[in-house]
Amino acid sequence: MTILDNQQLSSIKDQKEQELKELIHGSIEIRMRNTRRYLYIHYRDKDKVISKYVGEYSDSLYHEILNNNKQAKVLKKEINDLNKQITNYFHKETLSESVKNNINYLNDNLIDIISNQLSMENINVTNTNIKKIINNGLINNMMVNDILRVINYYNTWKFVLSDNIVTINDDYNLLKDICHILDNTSIHMSNSLIEELDEIINSIYKDIDIAINVILFLIKNRIINNINVALIFVNHFLINHSKGYIIIPKNKINNFNKLIDKYLIDEDDELLSDFINKYCYYK
Q1: Last-in-domain residue among 59, 75, 92
Q2: Which of these three, 75, 92, 109, is where a domain ends?
């Protein structure tokens, strides 16, 4: 590919991104006020989640948004394909078959994973509704904040699993990016803590033990407010090493939280480590 080819791809991508920006699309919400119905959409613009009033409900407007959603899905795929071509021009590293298999394994279970992670925030969303939100479908009787949390989780996972991110080093910068995308917050670590994190990640233990040690480190030092940030971070490490993933099942969340409280008091990591390994690790 020549530089000119790459410039042409970038120009086409810019045009499609502008077309997508001008298209009225997103997860549809119908709000009732008295006896009248109103259409709203929810969508992400870079790192911001936007809620937008579209107009008073009509069948024609509703079906126009549905058609726009189909068009948006095509545009997003085209933009994603263009991004991959542009990235591949600069980044030639290919994924091993084992890493690809691990990504496919996680993608096959992604709806369940997001559902479990939402439950840790006391947000209960059915798998069906998660799929609808991801596909910009119609959602009724659901709080806007809950819809936005689904979108945030999905976008964070797609970021972590993207070809040009899945192979990068697991470090403080990646942790910051995950925290920003998922919770739109910043984290700060001292140089000594950053060095300690690097030492844990590059230690000689088994991959699953390294992942659990990172979780314990982030909990003990109170670096993150949302445990799911830690889980997604260590899952990037496990995926990159073709070693499955860690998730807290809904029926184990209470036990997990109790063990965290105990760990913060006595710093005895054995019970929490064994629990994660036994009930939360999927190979």
Answers
A1: 92
A2: 92
211 plus 124 within the same structural domain: yes
Question: SS3 for 230?
Answer: helix
Domains identified in the chain, total number: 2
Query: Crossing angle of helices 191-201/172-183, nearest 10°?
Result: 100
Whether residue 179 is found in the same domain as residue 232:
yes
Whether 235 contacts 245, CB under 8 Å: yes
Do 209 and 239 belong together in one domain? Answer: yes
Express each pLDDT in 171-223 by its tens digit.
998 999 999 999 988 898 999 999 999 999 988 889 999 999 999 999 999 99
Q: Which of 177, 176, 221, 174 is nearest to 196 (CA)?
A: 221
Q: Give the helix/strand (H/E) hosting 24.
A: none
Nearest to residue 132, comparing CAs of 119, 145, 150?
A: 150
Query: What CATH number is attached to the domain comprising 123?
Result: 1.10.3290.10
> Both 54 and 133 in a single domain?
no
For 102-149, the pLDDT digits (tens) are: 999 999 999 999 999 999 999 999 999 999 998 876 677 788 889 999
Q: Pick from 246, 258, 174: which is nearest to 272 by CA?
A: 258
Length of the chain counted residue by residue: 283
Q: How many CA atoms lie within 13 A of 55 on its CB side?
A: 11
In terms of Cβ atoms closer than 10 Å to its own Cβ (0-12, 13-18, 19+), residue 52 is: exposed
Please choose, from the candidates 120, 206, 94, 279, the residue with its C-alpha nearest in 3D space to the C-alpha of residue 214.
206
Please tell me the pTM assigned to this model: 0.69
Measured distance CA(35)–CA(8) in Å, rounded: 52
User: Same structural domain for residues 87 and 189?
Assistant: no
Q: Check whether residue 199 and residue 170 sit in a common domain.
A: yes
How far is Cα 145 from Cα 51, in angstroms, rounded to an integer? 10
